[in-house]
Amino acid sequence: MTAPLLMIPGPIEVSPAVQEAFCVPPPSHVSPKVIEAFGLALERMREVWGASAASQPFVVAGSGTIAMEMAVVNVVAPGQRAVVVDTGYFSARMAEMLRRRGAQVTMVGAPVGQAPALEEVEAALAAGGCKALFATHVDTSTGVRVDPEALAAAARRHGALSIFDGVCATAAEAFWMERWGADIYLTSSQKAIGLPAGLALMVASPEAMAARRELGAEVPMSVDFLEWLPIMTAYQERRPSYFSTPATNLILALAVSLGELLASRVGELTGMAACFERHRRAAAAMRQGWAAMGLELLPEGGLAASSLSAVCYPQGVGPELTREIAARGVIVAGGLYKGLQSTYFRVGHMGHTTTRPDDLRRTLEAIEGALIACGHPIEAGVAVAAFNAAPTW
Ligand code: PMP
After folding, report:
1. Are 162 and 151 within 8 A, CB to CB?
2. By C-alpha distance, which of 88, 188, 81 is closest to 125?
3. Which of 8, 91, 253, 280 could cross-link to 333 by cystine, CB 3.0-4.6 Å?
């Protein structure tokens, strides 16, 4: 029997080359192989993030939540003001972290499936004294994508830093850190970066690094930019170093996965522009499939992310659908937004599977079969036919 296809919004399927790099006997953190891979990964991160040579990448063992914590505590001191763009579950987590840091938090929200208007965010920033604006690039609970370019520009206009949680977006959704003037873009390894879980990743702008130096508050040691900076510098210079043991197998795999992302090609496009376009087209083709099956998305219109689809259950169908889909060899996720969990399901389409349209077809086929089994009146084959009619990549 073929192994089930993991189509949740992270962890995701990884490429054979990544798996090969990861599945080796654990190397030492000061072995030449790890030092080279670490240095290469840091260089490649700047390219994947579209970040300047003056920016600082960090790779720390951990998860997306640890990356969020690291961003919060290095930039915001107790008593300072922060504005959070609230698009769902993970923005609420960011706000709670800020509150625990002692910050004064202003939330700018919108109804589920929507994002707040830029003017509302701008009004919160204009109230003055805001140290940083926080936003979730793609909220994994709702599939809503915000516009980081506009938000970063708004933050700059009001003298605030801009910090983006890219856990469900980085490497899948367009993001050009230097061009857009963003200050921290953070993620974790198990989503579109294309690795198993276990790494917290981020790039900080020179302004974010300056904010850490001027912070005037203690930063917990294990997540302090200034503890990690000499370590990152050492690896960049291909020197051994130690502060806290890195996840060495993941570091080997990280250099490979970032290399794969940068080697993307779609038509005339190369590098990250191609990688983002591949995800955009894959998501568009999946949306053709949803429409053909009479399914609606949770996010409104143009806000639907490229990295995942949050799909509403049709009339008469509920969470039993995900079990029916699993019985057909494809794993998808249930709803996550509080109070609405039983009204929709989520399908990840990021990373390796976007290079394999057959995996996406297999996913649509399994969902279609499951819907039919649950009594939804559609004809077998409509989803894949609609997918096949979409522009290829
Ligand atoms: N932010 C977003 C947008 C996420 O999707 C997630 C994880 N699904 C996190 C933060 C937290 O990441 P982790 O589970 O790796 O701690």
Report:
1. yes
2. 81
3. 8
List, for residues 220-264, the tens digit of each pLDDT value: 999 999 999 999 999 999 999 999 999 999 999 999 999 999 999
Peptide bond into 357 cis (omega under 30): no
Ligand 1 centroid distance, CA of 191 (Å)? 9
How many whole angstroms from 386 Cα to the centroid of ligand 1? 31
Measured CA to CA, the distance from residue 256 to residue 338 in angstroms comes to 37
H helix intervals, 241-380: 248-262, 271-292, 320-327, 357-373
Q: How many CB atoms lie within 10 A of CB 28?
A: 12
Query: pTM, whole model, 2 decimals?
Result: 0.98
Name every residue whose Cβ is closer than 8 Å to that of residue 302 and which is 6 or more positions away in sequence.
none
The reply to whether ligand 1 has any atom less than 6 angstroms from the CB of 65 is yes
pLDDT at 331: 98
- pLDDT higher than 80, residue 348: yes
Average pLDDT for the chain: 97
Separation of CA 66 and ligand 1 centre (Å): 9
How many angstroms separate the alpha carbon of residue 196 from the centre of ligand 1?
Answer: 13
**pLDDT surpasses 90 at 327:** yes
Q: Is the distance from the beta carbon of residue 69 to the nearest atom of ligand 1 less than 6 Å?
A: no
Is the CB of residue 167 below 6 angstroms from any atom belonging to ligand 1? yes
Encoded tokens for 309: 């689809």
Tens digit of pLDDT for each residue in 101-151?
999 999 999 999 999 999 999 999 999 899 999 999 999 999 999 999 999
